[in-house]
């Protein structure tokens, strides 16, 4: 068993080195071998542990941070949790400016992890002084020696994955990986991992997963920001209404768009078939595999690595709630044909 004879100094020693697990059933009707990089094995249960630890340690190396200093970010999601966790161990104050749309559960969780949470109105524009962007910026300016993680516009987000996720996958597949499929939010995961892998073998295909309602895929294809692409959607952590500089569009070969509904059913199908309780975007990434598989894009000898970014426990009141699924109308179209389609 992994770690059987080891004692760790603290939880941060367990960040990274997540397992690569073969998917035995969910994609079995397609040609190729499929493996999930299961990021919920990080101590903070998501891939964001990697960037929180890396960015904070880089600031320490540069002498920007000393114990007692403040770390600031604008997220109620996985990144917030990971920064709070790293801050506790390393003795920093963690301030998170979050939108009033964030669920009470998430805010409670962050406060439990020692973060100071500023709840900012969701309905104001990004340049309004009350917005969470502006609150974070102001706090950063006011506090000398503070670090603003700014994950969407921080090159270190890419570097964290270039230094860890990429080499891990290369070693775990013994250099035999042929495809990387990953959701793109900030773009840090896919860009950093792709950069490392393509340096080892430029023929590896890198496929990003985007949401309907996000501008990322269109921008990749045209290098133009098309506002018409933007509309509300439900999957959190996937896609964006702006172009993050933490996405290196040149390292990604193509994007596939997935729907909220199919991704939700796919997340549930992963639990039922593989026994892996993963988050909504893992369902989105797997849905992309299904779409590519149906286009016969994989061959027998291919080794496809799919990033599963976080754990299912964070979605109990959403994807894993029948009530929520019903409210979204996601059960309405279920008939025998669709049930068969999603069950594999
Ligand atoms: N899935 C989830 C659940 C996330 O929180 C994120 C990060 N926003 C992603 C996927 C995408 O990762 P990245 O930001 O590195 O593109």
TrEMBL record:
Domain spans labelled Tryptophan synthase beta chain-like PALP: 12-310
Coiled coil: none
Top-level division of the source organism's lineage: Bacteria
Keyword check for Signal: no
InterPro entries per record: Cys_Synth/Cystath_Beta-Synth, TrpB-like_PALP, TrpB-like_PALP_sf
Needed cofactors: pyridoxal 5'-phosphate
Keyword terms of this UniProt record: Pyridoxal phosphate
CDD domains membership: CBS_like (cd01561)
Name of protein: Cysteine synthase family protein
Species name: Algibacter aquimarinus
